[in-house]
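PROTOCOL LOG
Step 1. Enter all chains and additional molecules of the complex.
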Amino acid sequence: MGDEAVLRRLEAWRKQDRRLYERVAHTNDKLAGRRREVYRVLAAQLCHAYGAIVVEDMAIPRVTRPGPAEAPTDQQADLARRQARVAAPGLFRSVLATTAKREGVRFISAPAAGTTRMHNACGTHLDQSGARSITMWCPVCEVSFDQDENAAKNLLGTLASATAAT
Ligand SMILES: [Zn+2]
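Step 2. Run joint prediction.
Step 3. Record the structure below.
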């Protein structure tokens, strides 16, 4: 194959690669726009339904950032991080805050520290990592409980306290 033929094939490949790249970029833009629209509608529905919103102030990048390169591969954690990036919880929180402000709905960003580990039923601070299991055990109440549901109840307590204080 001569130089001209090689150049023609390379040019054809470059044009095709550019078309594919632009198609992917366009699709990504459309999906991001749809996600934002879904979040706007959901935020409006939540503000209308509840009249007050409380969220954790946790740093979202901590959830979506890949683990250290030297750490052993954890496929479930990698999948969770990828799904978190697609879901863009930071974007949803931002849209929710903006919508609440616009609608005159109380919006509280509460400290995330301890919401999972403090058992809502008794106030005991549990000294166990919740990273490996959804459920936690309270030795005082002698019950296991869903740590996310527990965190949500603690956040509602924060909201109730903030509301009572005003
Ligand atoms: Zn307890």
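Step 4. Note key features.
Residues 74 and 120 are 31 Å apart (CA to CA).
The helical segments are 3-50, 61-64, 75-87, 89-103, 147-164.
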